[in-house]
Protein 1
Amino acid sequence: MKRIIDNEQLNITGERIKQARIKANMSQQQLSNKLELLAVYTCRGSISRIENGHRAVTDIELDAISKVLNVSLDFLFGRE
């Protein structure tokens, strides 16, 4: 059964997360590991799907990602 939301962007922050992660010279697995230290359990595959816009990202994940990558939430939302 095909999902109604197939091929739709599920978040607007994925590309900015990817940019910040690459700028921080961090792999998806390294980001996942650092998030786990903040008790935010997001596997490498989920990070890939978030960056590609194929997975929604929670507010808790966004906050932790911004801290790990040392960027503002405004940057992640494209307001900077």
Protein 2
Amino acid sequence: MTDISFYHLTTRSLEEALPKLLELSLQSEERALVLLGNEERMEFFNGLLWTYEPGSWLPHGTMEDGDPADQPIFITSRDENLNEATFLFLVDGAVSENLRSFKRVFDLFNGRDEEAVKAARNRWSSYKRDGHSLLYWKQDETGRWTKA
């Protein structure tokens, strides 16, 4: 059984929220895998993590950066845990067949997109049937996460 947390983005964008969650992962000394739906988004987030905030730096990489095992945060569009991550971030509706191999899964979805909300509800139902431990987090008006 894996702990899966749904992050319902309502006031801040994925581009604002993901780097902050990744910072917290590294602070807790966990390795992270960011699984995206396609290669274009992978390249976008690879660039974003270098520039999301002045003075910040998140050590990360993709297959183009060399050995995935050297990357504490690995960004990919393939469902493979090549950096031996314990935390999995599912972005843009990405799904994994390997949820049980992670300590914790973060499923981030856009609350302003009805299709994304519907798909997240379907994933929630599926994960619940599979016996995973589920949590739901929603942003308040300031962008802070509150457990619902």
Protein 3
Amino acid sequence: MNLAGSGVILAARLGFLFVSLLVLVKGQALLAPEEARELNHAIDAGLRGDRLGCNIQPEPVSLSFSFRFEAGYTVTCPVRVFDGKEGQVYSFVRVTPENGESVVLGERFGIPAIPPDPSGDFKKVRAEIEFSGAFAIGEGQYSVEVIVADHRKRLVRKQWRIHASRHRSEQSVQIAMEPASVAPLLTQPWDGGVERPGTGRRVTIIVDAAPINPRALKLHAWDRALLLDCVSSLLAHTDFRSVRLIAINLDQQREIFREDNLDRKGWSDLGHRLRDLELGTVSYKVVEDQQGWSNLLIRLLRQEAASREPSDAVIFVGPTSRITSRLPAELLPKEGKGEFFYIEYYPAWLNGGEFPDALAHITRALGGEVLKIHSPGELAQAIQKIQKRLAPQDTGPAPH
């Protein structure tokens, strides 16, 4: 075998895939059949290249709040491997069900330019760049291969096996994906339809785009998955006539997304917006105004109350926040008769340390209900409770 010729061919295939990914919108996507074949050929032929000094760490499989199994990985790269220059990193994931066909996903990430340390030596810079990826699967056994490469065709790869199955407490959950199937994370069970003329209620969903770990400085793939999963399950299993969706970040004290009539395109835009959110970047104005989060919430609630068509319900969704202060009651809007709910996620490791956050205080002050969830089963129960409370009341037969 001509190793030199093989290396040229493999490099060409990798370059072809890079060009293909450049035209993708931001976010994870299925590779087209031709591109998937190229990557499969390159992997099976023994893909080689100069080593990219990054580490790939598999993340455990778990049943998600969209009632699918999700698995993923984290990539950590010292900034010095990029010599402080702006560039691109490409992540390719091949997921192969046992006795099934491989599915190939691709994603690209921008690497920002990083200034050197005061001495001008990048080798002394100890900061790291971190990004993550994830995908959805049905029950079964899978082989996972991840290849991370940069624009200089350096690469690092890792392979492992995963098993997706329900725990004893999850046996009653109906899995939303067929066994031995794979899908990008952004593919959700909600079909984009909410308008049902004459039925349902108007609802406003306010998503707090915060990480599960209150100490984290950015959203990871599993943080985004939690938010999207909870909202998509809420939409898929309730009867809403129209949905206004607003995404905020209390730490950054800003609104990051708004769609007054949510549809499939708006849903896709939300996923991309969450992916781009870097929680480590905080405006100097936020530092100067530590109570700016309260002004944001008051403004949103007053806008809702003053709307020409206020929603029948406002539903907060998000992980429990690091902000636990109360808003003075006199600042909350008095007008409006809508229902209020807060689907508040608590991770298992916070068991015993569950304290109400700012959104829980607001929800109760407005006469609403806080629905704590720790598992997909509890989310299903919370959705059923919301649906029951918002169901049109049966007023009996019309008078003669």
Protein 4
Amino acid sequence: MLKRLNKVLPELVAAIIIYGIAAWLVGIWLAGDKLMYSTGLFIGVCLAVGMAVHMAVVLEDAVSIGSSQSKLITMSLLRYAAVVLVFVCTVSFHLGDPIAAFIGVMGLKIAAYMQPFFHKLIMKLQGREEFSTENQNHEINNQIEEVRK
């Protein structure tokens, strides 16, 4: 399902989860209340994944059916309101550490910056190679030279 929405979305979600695991492994040693830290981080990572999926759905709708700018703004505000609501519930009901939840939500930003590196790593692990424009130009030039001979 994720790949139908956006080719990059599965890689983005995987990067958010890997970031969450790394943040948990580092933070668990520093946290005073390990359970609150873990649940807060889990809430933040789940929120980041949900935001990534929501953004992909909204972008797909905008591209395919030509949504208006006001709908895009409304969906962005809805996403921000959901983040605020989750943070208010986390603090009000003592569900987890709000700082850890914030660290988890930042996984979306970190994953977005790491995605190109993560994509290249996945391609290498799968044994596939992406062609850059330079490689394509070199390949085309070689084919032209072969035709001339």
